[in-house]
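Troubleshooting entry. Yesterday's outputs looked truncated, so today I'm pasting the complete records for two proteins to confirm everything comes through intact. If either block looks cut off, that's the bug. Protein one:
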Amino acid sequence: MKTIALTGELRSDLGSKSSRALRNEGKVPCVLYGGNELVHFFIYSPDFKNLVYTPNTYKVQLTIEGKKYYAILQDMQFHPVNEAIIHADFLMVDDVKKVTVTIPVTVTGNSPGVRSGGKLIQKIQRLRVRALISNIPDFVSVNIDSLDLGQSIKIKNLDVPNIEILDSKDNAIVSVKMTRNVVKEEAAAK
């Protein structure tokens, strides 16, 4: 799993009034939990760009007042009108406890069903998984080299070692659907 570094500063005051003042200065109030005690801090809003606005999932190396913590972004709150980040929650991680994250799905290969005129439909872009942080890959790869017209690859067909996939096993990740042109060609061939 890729790591991204963020630097924060401890908050001296807590509460809605001080949080509003931080947001007006372009800072995002944050909480780090999962350890012995909660750590309240803030990060400058532009620093979230590479963490939030990407399809990837990252482990975060937080440096707060010189102390380093490893965490994952657990939850975010956005302003309802202007979509600005107004709060972030981080969960401290280690190599002993399992964590639940979502990771992207990438499709590789060349489907015979698509080559014969079908349409490839990727129904699932991200999978929810639970595993030790050291076992979580950057993405799950789905090979479609054997996918023909009318077929699909389901979650139960995936083999990802050391990871528990939390989504329903019967959900289709990708499928090849017959297009109208293929149906017309088959009807004309009969």
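Protein two, checking that the full record survives here as well:
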Amino acid sequence: MRITISGPPGSGKTTVCGMLAERTGYPAVVFGRLFRDMAAEKGLTLAELGALAEKDPSIDHEIDQRILKMASGSEDIILESRLSAQMLERNGIPAFKVYLDADPLVRAERVGRREGEDLAQAAEAMVRRQESEARRYRQYYGIDLFDLSVYDMVIDTGGMSPEEVVSAIVGRMEGD
């Protein structure tokens, strides 16, 4: 079964994706790492690459084509990216689509811990990143990141451990 994991920064996507991969035995592809790698290769910060991507659609298109190629090539895979659910839906590729979210303060705390930033820095960077992505996806694809209707499951991860989130996903996949 193809599984997509989407959500805003700090929602727990990468952690849950890794744990879900361990539990299911499916390979996991985390596209946020690809974006970070692209930024590092270009000597840019995430925010700078995001700003560049607002002017150069080839950056997002490259990532999106990789999503579609990987999804088409494997029925048992986990794809973690902001647009994986929408891209698979638009291309008629079946998947179980999960959206993770949490209160912005919780997400900023998580991002701050991960990036080694204080809460204010993390919150500011997170907001800039979300605004950049929302602009790009609306401009390039007509996708509203706040429209959750494409998802099979929406989870507020704020009060849950990663293990609880994974158990909830697996339970829903198994029809419990």
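Both blocks look complete. Sanity check on protein two: The chain has one domain: 2-170.
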